[in-house]
Amino acid sequence: MDGWSLRVPTFGYIGLICTCETRVGVLLTATTRCSYPDHRLEKALATGLFARIHVRMFGDPQCTTSPRYSWEKWAAAYPGSKVYIGLVASWEQDSAWMFQKDLYYEMLQFVRNLPNYGGLAIYDRYYDKKANYTGQG
C-alpha cells in the first residue's frame, strides 16, 4: 500500500495530516470540488502540506459553465502544490464528461504549461478501459 484515501465530510483531522506529513515518503493528496473554495477542505489545505490537489471537474453543477476558470483559481491559490484536472472517463459516469478534443481546446492548451499543473486524474480505471478515454484501454 502506498497511500490512503480518506473521505472526510468535515475536515477535523489536521493532527493526522501533520503526523502523515512527517513520515518519509508520504505524499498527501486532497480531492476537492470544482467550485473554489471548497469549504470542507479549507483548513486542511491551509496547512500547505498537500503535495497534490485533484480538482474534480464533475459532480458539481457550478463547474459545468467554466471548468478552466475554476481550475485556474485552484492553481493560483495553491502554487506550492501540483494541481490535477479530475475527470470522469465516460459519459456514463457523469454529465460533466468532457470529450477529449474539448478537453484539449478548452483547457489543456491553456493550463498544461503552468508551473503547478500536475496532469489528469481519471476516475475510474474501469470506465477508462471501457471507453478507452486515455488511449490506454
Structure in words:
Helices cover 32% and strands 18% of the residues. The chain has helices at 14-22, 42-46, 67-77, 100-111, 125-131, and strands at 29-33, 52-56, 82-88, 117-123. The model has no long low-confidence stretch (mean pLDDT 83). It has a 4-stranded parallel β-sheet. It has 137 residues and is of the alpha/beta class. The two termini are 24 Å apart. Strand 2, helix 3 and strand 3 (82-88) form a beta-alpha-beta unit. It has one domain (27-131): Glycosidases (TIM Barrel).
Give a nutshell description of this structure.
With 137 residues, the chain is α/β, with parallel strands linked by helices. It has helices at residues 14-22, 42-46, 67-77, 100-111, 125-131; strands at 29-33, 52-56, 82-88, 117-123. Helix content is 32%, strand content 18%.
Oligomer: single chain
How would a textbook summarize the main sheet?
Answer: 4 strands, parallel
Mean of residue pLDDT values? 83
Overall shape: globular
Order of helices and strands: HEHEHEHEH
Distance between the termini: 24 Å
| pLDDT < 50 runs, ≥5 residues | none
- As for the CATH topology, it is TIM Barrel
Helical proportion, percent range: 25-40%
Topology:
Blueprint: H1 14-22, E1 29-33, H2 42-46, E2 52-56, H3 67-77, E3 82-88, H4 100-111, E4 117-123, H5 125-131
Parallel strand pairs: 1-2, 2-3, 3-4
